[in-house]
Amino acid sequence: MLPEWTSQQRAALQVMGIPIWEKKRASAPVFYYRLGPLYLRGERELPVSLPGWLDDLCLYFEQRPVAIKAPSKTPDVCFDYTDSLTGSFPVETKKSLWQQLKHAKL
Fold first, then answer.
1. HSE-up of 47 (CA within 13 Å, CB side)?
2. Alpha-carbon distance 38 to 10, whole Å?
3. Which one, 9, 35, 42, 78, has least CB within 10 Å?
4. Helix, strand or coil for residue 38?
C-alpha cells in the first residue's frame, strides 16, 4: 500500500527533486481470440468447455478459437463474448452476431 503524503511531505519531496509516485488504476484485462476470420473479445478467458453457441461457430469454421495478442486496431468482425458466458445468450445477440457474419467479407 502506498503512503498518503501530507502537503509538507509533498513540498519537501518537490524541493529535493524527488518525484511523487502515485497509484494508477489498472485497466481490466481484455482477452482476444481468433476463430477463422472472426475475432472474439472478452473480459474473461474462454472456458475449456465452450458454450453451445461457440461450439456451433467452431463447427461452422471447422476450427477452435485460438488466443492471440490484442490487434492494433479493432477488426471489422469482432464480437464481445463477455455477457454470453454467464449462461444466458439472448436471441437478439445471436441474430446480431449472425448478421455481422453474413455481411462480413469472410
1. 11
2. 51
3. 9
4. strand
CA 40 remoteness from chain centre: 8
Q: Are 47 and 67 in contact (CB under 8 A)?
A: no
Cell numbers describing residue 78 = 469482432
Cell of 5: 503524503
Where do the domains of the chain lie?
Answer: 27-103
45-99 pLDDT, tens digit per residue, is 999 898 888 888 899 889 999 999 988 887 878 888 887 877 677 788 778 777 8
Please tell me the pTM assigned to this model.
0.67
* Residue 24 DSSP label: P
